[in-house]
Write a structure and sequence with these properties.
The chain is mainly alpha-helical and about 180 residues long. Helices cover about 75% and strands about 0% of the residues. The model has no long low-confidence stretch (mean pLDDT about 80).
Amino acid sequence: MARPAKAASVIKIEGNKNRRTKRELAVREQAEKALLTGCIMQESAEVKADKVAHAEFLRLKPLLTAIDKFDEIYGAATNRYCLNKSKLIEAENDVADLKVELEHLKECREDFVDAGDIAEYYRLLTRMQDTITKREQIARNIRNEMNGYEKEHCMTILSALRAIPKKPETKTNSLKEALG
């Protein structure tokens, strides 16, 4: 796989080391800007309403702004990512609460033995463990989905950089070609 072209900002930072002309650099910058909508990314109403998702959006805003990717073209994926972050935290909190309840149930084992309900104890214990496993699976699925968004987001940026030609097209004079 070919190495992706460098962003114009990276080329500028490198200075003389890159051997690009000012014209090539200008064409590259123009091509990069053409890949963006020019509209600032908007936070969806759903994200604004969710405290955790809103906080995640505010965390991502300066990061995306710093790399010139706080553009509406990335808005849908970013909003979904923020909502999933909220769902993930909720699922992880549910798992933690259930584990506390499980420990409490284990501490009460003697009470069930004394009451002669050991079968009920093991039924409750098994159901609680199954519930914890299901909640952990939900959290794992959310993490995988968030990972997919992260990859999608990064791949979108990389794909955009690959779409920009490394060198501008040279215009040839057809008359010179015919004569020469």
